[in-house]
Amino acid sequence: MQPLRPSLFLLTVNCSLSIAYRPMNLTHTDDQGRASMVDISAKPPMSREAVAEAFIKLQGDTLALIRDNGLKKGDVLAVARIAGIQAAKQTQMLIPLCHQIALSKVAVDFEMTEHGIRIITTAKTIAQTGVEMEALTAASITALTIYDMCKAVDKTMRITDVRLVSKVKESGTGL
After folding, report:
1. Cβ(46)–Cβ(124) below 8 Å
2. Which of 39, 68, 148, 154 is catalytic?
3. Rounded distance between C-alpha atoms, residue 146 and residue 123, angstroms
4. Closest Cα to residue 142, out of 168, 167, 111?
């Protein structure tokens, strides 16, 4: 049995913070601590979906240019959407220990706010492993593409809040 070590997760108990103790099991290292790809060969294929998001803070004038398609580089949201989809399909090439999986869907959606654009990405597959990294990669690259297309007019942009919103796996896919 592994020794218990403090985790990075904090629990609120009776309005005070305490450190949660649990075994530390890194899935991408072997017994000697070397990087290792997880063996998923014994896992059954399942329907899986992950949703991720990112936020890019933009000036109001920049948001107006995006809305009005007034930037010299073209339709920012259309280009960023395609970049996000392409990025999800290349995740295994960008993140060394990710498995190559067949994506059945990648969607990139936008919510314009007063202070910027929220990017919401969804990735789906039927596979032996999840699609979290594909959804996160899509969100990150979509945000970077918006940044690239707007950098000439907005020097204050910030990409924030890149996170996994949800992940779901369902057995009974018939495979």
Report:
1. no
2. 148
3. 20
4. 111
Residues 126, 14: Cα–Cα separation, whole Å: 42
Query: How far is C-alpha 86 from the chain's CA centre?
Result: 13
CA distance 159 to 16: 32
Q: Let me know if 148 is a catalytic residue.
A: yes
Domain ranges of the chain: 46-170
Mean pLDDT of 121-133: 97
Residues with Cβ within 8 Å of 53's Cβ and at least 6 positions away in sequence, in order, are 118, 119, 120, 121, 139, 161, 162, 163, 165
Structurally, what CATH architecture does the domain formed by 46-170 represent? 2-Layer Sandwich (3.30)
Residue 82 has pLDDT above 90, yes or no: yes
Helix H or strand E encompassing 56: strand 46-57
Query: Count of CB atoms within 10 A of residue 169's CB?
Result: 15
Mean pLDDT to the nearest integer, 38-58: 94
Whether the pTM exceeds 0.85: the reply is no
Q: Which two tokens stand for residue 77?
A: 């949201």
Where does residue 104 rank: exposed (0-12), middle (13-18), buried (19+ CB within 10 A)?
Answer: middle
d(CA 46, CA 72): 44
